[in-house]
């Protein structure tokens, strides 16, 4: 049975057309980075995927991206969610273009999948055909390379990564050891686009199998 998509929600968005000098220093902005775009979302890994997409669609750089501890269920306010991302660019128009690309990804392309009817048990097995500057730097790969972004709860993440690595000619380039800030785990795998997709499929199938029979070994 197909797993049900669990989509993130964009909670708050703002643009700073001309950022203050104190923030320029704190965010280590480049001289040409005069404008900022800020966004919070309900799901952190979708947020990371989205801001990476922004770097491919506009002249922007991800200068700040963080998950919030324990996740959206324990957010500090109604507009916090579990992720904040900040894009920097030379003009407000470029930043807005980046934010729009990020929102499109969140609303239409990147999503978790529910393993149960309540949506309490989820996984993320998203294949990025061509990375932008942000995830490329995080993974230590060249821009434009394929990437499998795999996330699940702690035990499922480790077991699923093992299955994904054995299923295709991929390399684990970033390991998110559990528990992450939001109490998940996983990793970034690179290889050909078809290999990344095969790895993601194996990860999804393995995590789903654990959900069906969690104590059967």
Question: Gist?
Answer:
With 217 residues, this protein is an alpha+beta fold.
How would you characterize this protein structure?
Keywords: Bacterial microcompartment. With 217 residues, this protein is α+β, with helices and mostly antiparallel strands. The chain has helices at 21-26, 44-57, 92-108, 133-139, 154-167, 193-212, and strands at 4-6, 10-16, 35-41, 61-67, 83-89, 112-114, 122-128, 147-152, 171-176, 185-190. The strands form 2 sheets. The protein has a 6-stranded antiparallel beta sheet with strand order 1-6-7-8-10-9, sandwiched between helices. The two termini are 23 Å apart.
Strands of the biggest beta sheet: in what spatial order?
1-6-7-8-10-9
Shape type: globular
- The number of helical elements comes to 6
Termini separation: 23 Å
Number of strands: 10
Strand percentage: 25-35%
Biggest sheet architecture: 6 strands, antiparallel
Radius of gyration: 17 Å
Q: How much is the average pLDDT?
A: 96
The quaternary state of the protein chains shown equals single chain
Low-confidence stretches: none
Output the helix-strand order.
Answer: EEHEHEEHEEHEHEEH
Helix content estimate: 25-40%
SS content category: alpha+beta
